[in-house]
Each structure stands twice: as C-alpha cells, then as structure tokens.
C-alpha cells in the first residue's frame, strides 16, 4: 500500500513534449482513473509511473520514496496491459507463478500467493488449464493474477478491458470494483472510456493534450465540469452546447438569450460576466425535459431511437448547426417531424464563458 506523488512531471519524445508538467497526489488505497481522448498522454503517464519511460523533468514518489531512478521491478508496482500475453505452453498456475519463480521466491510462498490470487479472481478451478482453453475474460483474470501475486504497493492498469466484447467489459468492470474493495491497494487505471471511469474511480483525472483538465470524484465532474472540454467528455450521450448571449448576470444567476432566441435562466455565479458577452449554454440530454415548468426551448425531432429503456430524440434547433440530443424515458416515443417543447431547469443547466471556463454552479 502506498500513495503516489507526481510533481512537475514532464515527458518529451525527441523535441516533442507530450506531458507538460503534471502535479497529482494519489492517496494510499485510492482507485484513480486517467481518462482522455486518444493521444492525450494517459498511457505515457502510466508508463512513466511504471518506470517504462524516463521522466524529462519532475519527481515521482511512491510511498514517500523518490523512484525516478529505480527500475520498474524496484518500484513496488505491478502493471496489467491491454494485451495480456500469457505464455501459451504454461498452465494458468505456471503463468501466475512465473515472475516469482524468476525472482527465486520460496516454493511454498509462491504456492500460497498463486492460490490466494486464484481465490480472489475465482479461477481456482482453471489452475491446471492452458490459456487456449480459457475464455477472454478468464485470460484477463490470469493476467491480473500475475500482478496480484507480486503483492505490489500500486497496481497499474493500461486499458485492460479494451480487447473484450461489450458484455464481458461490463462484467469485468464489476470484477475490478470488487478487486479493489477486497485488496484495498492503490490502483491507477487508464481508459478512454468515460463509463469505465465513472463507474470505477474514486477520483477521475481528465487529461487533454498532455495536461490535467480536472481531477475529481465522478459525480463532481458530471455536476461541476470546470470547462467545456470536461463537460463534453464526461457524460454519455454528450452535453448539448448552445451558443447564447448573456442578458444579465449576478452572483445568483444568469439570464441568457440562446441562438434560437429563447430566454433561459441558469443558476450560476455569473458576476464575472457582462451583458452582451458571448457564452455557451450546456444542457445534458437527460435534462431537456418534456414535463416541468420554467424556461423552455422548442425544437423539431429529425430522428428518434427507441431502445426500450430509453428514447433518444435528435432535434434541429433554430440557428444551431449541430443536432440537440434529448434522452426521454422509454415509454415516450415522439416521431420524427414532431415539434417538442423542452424545459430546462435553472439548476440543471451549465454556462461557459467565451474562454471555455464554466461559471461556477450554485
Ligand atoms: P494515450 O494513451 O492518451 O492515447 P499516449 O500516451 O500513448 O496517449 O501518447 C501521447 C502522445 O505521445 C501521442 O502524441 C503519441 O503519438 C506520443 N508518443 C507516445 N509514445 C511515443 C514514442 N515512444 N515516441 C514518440 N512519440 C510517442
């Protein structure tokens, strides 16, 4: 068990800097997920913590010890990769025992650790099987088992579920949550999938172009995205963004006129805004509501998806090039061509200034 401290961490490949000074503290026992679009630097950051990449600048501490110059094996970490590359001619037991054997661990100790890990992962019945006789999910468990037997202070997971099909990903997501609950070891997990981030993390670190955009508990990021990037990245389907003009702003609320001419009130501290400022109104698909009172917009459905448990309607709105997305309950089934009046509660809307930063929600 250990905390992890990154201070001013930079990484360049040749002349190209891809991490621009990362400061982050991860608590002992915390489950932290690095999330961000492809190429934002999340794998590089994880590999730097693992010791697979040297830092160009900054310090990395694990359990209070500076590890910049330590080899991966000496850092007290264990990493699980997307491709789990098991040895095909070894049994599950041998695959899990291999690292400890190389490290010349005592045979009884190896056996104790392999069996303990197999119990945690529910693969005790498969210990004598070869990897080819296992399903994708079972193979992934063996790869995790290889990490567990090392009894690391910190687990590092690099997109561990990307190679699995959708149904299995959901099951394994649950397994990761359970694993963390049982082991209580610090875990750092990289994914581009914001649903994995939302469901697994104690705290999410949103990365964009080599910088941290925001760090927070999942619901904190959902309810209080600091800027447009985080607002669009967290939440599925994406938040609707509607250009607007500030009519009036105070510390209590903002009144805006949208590009479609509707006047909407948003419960934010807009004291830094000026009347006439260009702003962006943000409303999540689940917060555009057919029922309710208060301000509303009117938009035309162009396409409707009925999923049974939910209905998604895609709408054109005057003056807006992109379609709006609305999430309705499954029983509600508008048709394309229908004109919908959608209410926006002041305390469910978001507002961003022209520089992309959010006005603080109240
Ligand atoms: P992510 O995991 O978020 O998709 P990466 O950490 O893999 O992103 O990559 C971040 C950036 O660093 C990308 O622009 C990528 O092309 C670059 N990069 C990663 N590894 C190398 C490397 N070994 N050499 C040169 N550039 C690299």
Summarize the structure in words.
- The protein has 362 residues and is of the alpha+beta class.
- It folds into two domains: 229 residues, 3-Layer(aba) Sandwich (Rossmann fold); 115 residues, Nucleic acid-binding proteins (OB fold (Dihydrolipoamide Acetyltransferase, E2P), Beta Barrel), CATH 2.40.50.140.
- Helices cover 23% and strands 33% of the residues.
- It contains eight helices and 19 strands.
- The strands form four sheets. A six-stranded mixed beta sheet has the order 6-7-8-3-9-10, sandwiched between helices. Strands 13-12-11-14-19 form a five-stranded antiparallel beta sheet. A four-stranded antiparallel beta sheet has the order 2-1-4-5, with helices on one face.
- Helix 2 runs parallel beside helix 4.
- The longest helix is centred in the middle third of the chain and has 18 residues.
- The protein starts with a strand and ends in a 9-residue tail after the last strand.
- The model has no long low-confidence stretch (mean pLDDT 95).
- The site of adenosine-5'-diphosphate has 10 residues, from helix 1.
List the helices and strands and how they pair.
Layout: E1 4-13, E2 16-26, E3 31-35, H1 42-50, E4 57-62, E5 65-66, E6 77-80, H2 92-102, H3 107-121, H4 136-148, E7 154-158, H5 166-183, E8 186-191, H6 194-200, E9 203-208, E10 211-216, H7 218-223, H8 228-233, E11 240-249, E12 254-258, E13 263-266, E14 278-283, E15 296-306, E16 310-316, E17 324-329, E18 339-343, E19 349-353
Parallel strand pairs: 3-8, 3-9, 6-7, 7-8
Antiparallel strand pairs: 1-2, 1-4, 4-5, 9-10, 11-12, 11-14, 12-13, 14-19, 15-16, 15-18, 16-17
Helix pairs in contact: 2-3, 2-4, 3-4
